[in-house]
Amino acid sequence: MKIRNSFGLNEERKVFIHENKKEESVLVAIPSLSWSTYFSYDEYGEQLVEDMISSLKQRTEENEATELAQRINQWTREM
Asked: Which residues contact 18 (CB under 8 A, 6 or more apart)?
């Protein structure tokens, strides 16, 4: 598991990322927002980012949701 810090406009958020290579999937959690998502390698792409933004907007402001989704996408692609 990797822990990343996202420094946004509002505050610092810890983002927990677990990659399951055997099942080719990723679990991402942000405890301070009570938010998590699970996706497979096959789901990478713009639709995944849009889905994360939509989900995160329910927990935080749109700007932060967009920023977090883009960072999560970048971090998970680097794994």
From this structure: 1, 2, 26, 27, 28
- The CA distance from 23 to 57, in Å, is 28
Q: State the burial class of residue 29 (Cβ atoms within 10 Å of its Cβ: 0-12, 13-18, 19+).
A: middle
**pLDDT digits over 29-69, tens only?**
999 999 999 999 999 888 999 999 999 999 999 999 999 99
Residue 22: phi, psi to the nearest 5? Answer: -65, -45
Contact yes or no for 19/44 (Cβ under 8 A): no
User: 40: domain range?
Assistant: 2-78
Q: The pTM is what?
A: 0.90
Domain count, the chain: 1
